[in-house]
Amino acid sequence: MNPLDIPPAAIVGQLIVGLINGSFYALLSLGLAIIFGLLHIVNFAHGALYMVGAFIAWALLQYLGLGYWWALLIVPLVTAVLGMLAERTMLRRLQGLDPVYALLLTFGLALVLEGAFRLAFGATGQPYASPLSGGFALPFAYLPAYRIWVIVASMLVCFATWWFVERTRFGATLRAAHENPSLVRTFGIRVPLLLTLTYGLGVGLAGLAGVMAAPIYQVSPLMGSDLIVVVFAVVVIGGMGSIIGSIVSGFGLGVIEGLTRLLLPDASGIVVFVVMLLVLAFKPAGLFGRGDL
User: Fold this and answer.
1) pTM of the predicted structure, to 2 decimals
2) CB 111 within 8 A of CB 51
3) How far is CA 166 from CA 116, 144, 176, 251, 278, in A?
4) To the nearest whole percent, how much of the chain has pLDDT over 70?
């Protein structure tokens, strides 16, 4: 397709779609980057916890009558607690062992969670009503209100998380607890508790992404497994453990993927992996791989 023949409405539409997908790529890869950068855990359960977050939001609405805005507050806390329990009861027992053991454990946990939800709810998706109706009419496109909210809110969450880890005293303590735990203990700080909170923060972001995704995609047991491979590619492109790399790569790759649908629709499903191969060929550490958390 000739790019000059593409109508402006189609370009804007795909940019919005790309930014929406990029919002979820950024939120999920941000949580993965925090967990890997501070704990050196490749958390394959991240996609499953994203799915769990969406299902908790759906259950709050169906059984308790608590809508989307309550779910935005409750679900990240619940998923964070679930993650911290997993870290305390399972992952902590693997400290000092090869990281591949934690990878296999989280991969198994993801399969168990996905299988349990498929058994309980089936493979079909559950609808979740959008909390915002209407939108903004531009001369050449219509922008749905909820999708604009998702893009803006995810950017704010990503910036707030970056600021928290990089610019606050507590964030500096988290990084120090990973880099030099013996020194941090001398100040009377409970390092194991900090590491547990770090894991909770990472999976809490996955739960938040699940709530935000519920009105856009159907709430399905497969929604996490469909997304996690792409999110890991985003993390690799940005640089393993790099917060800013995850944010920039997440939104950037979402836009690239969206625009590819206009020019080469058949290639939109692989463009992220093509970019990953190119980045690894020329900069194996990722685009922001040299930056520390």
Assistant:
1) 0.91
2) no
3) 37, 33, 12, 20, 29
4) 96
